[in-house]
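Subject: for your reference before the review

Hello V.,

The reviewers asked for a structural picture of the protein, and I figured it would be easier to keep everything in one thread rather than splitting it across files. Below is the amino acid sequence we used in the manuscript, unchanged from the supplementary table.
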Amino acid sequence: MVKMLIFDLKKSEREFLREFDTSDFDITYFDESLTKDTKLTVKECDETAILSVFLTSKITKEVLDKFKNLRLITTRSVCYHHIDINECRRRNIGVINVGDYGRSSVSQYVIGLIFALTRNIFTASEDIKKSNFDYEKYESQDIDKLSIGVIGTGSIGSAVCELAYKLGMKVNANDIIMNKDIKEFTEYMSLNDLLRKSDIVTLHIPYVKEFKYMISDKEFALMKDGSYIINVSNSALINPFALYRAINRKKIKGAGLDVIFDQQDSMFYENLEHSKIDELERIIIRDKLIHQENVIITPRIAYDTKESSEKIIRSNFNDIKDFYIGRKTNRVV
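And here is what came back from the structure prediction:
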């Protein structure tokens, strides 16, 4: 059997794995994340061939040095910035991520954020708790009177387009490739036109270095006064300082963020050659955003449904089996 260590394991994932066929593997489960400070036995370090981790684990050179016979790392996420890819490549260690797993869960979450923001649900709820409510603050618009601009129309972005269309929204989109499955009810346009014409802008693209801060002061200036922005993709796509300025000027009426810079992202930003001073400044601006009444921030839970977690585990184990027979399903390295 192949020795495997699984970290960052949630209770629901552990329950699902009890019923899942893992007979080809000798697995040790860990609730905690894997870092350079994780205590492992000599046997675990010597015999482990596969690691399964989530975003909260940090697979650095120091972590890789612990393992003598490591062949493969699987991350139960689309992003893999928490893994030192160059070091894995140098050591001939394979890296696998997850492809399409959160189409329904993430797209539904985006629609939930739209309702919460546009209908002032969180503001009204907090005011009620304080016995200090003001109906003038809560007036909004019917959602079918609003337009949505979807940046990136892959699996999740196209699902957002479909749900928005079913709610009666005008759907604008921007992508390098037009998705033929949604073209009948979606108007593709340039990014600048999308920003100008959309009441709500939502991002659904993977992060690459060229997309760093693709939404910044210039882009916010193009957006409609009193518009909304949603990001469930990657925190580096939006300049947090520019977002804070746009919210303070009331250019942006509200933001829904399932991803925002925090201390767990430090390795990612170090890889982008940011200094520790920059990191501290981003933490400060994050805290300012958290306390804005019209900003909803959640800790990467858009994907987090029982069904998505099970799909991720199935995908990981199928990809591991493919790896051992020479296929490259969802291979990063």
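For the response letter, the relevant points are probably these. The radius of gyration is 21 Å. Residues 2-101+306-324 form a domain with the Rossmann fold fold (CATH 3.40.50.720).

Happy to draft the paragraph if you're swamped.

O.
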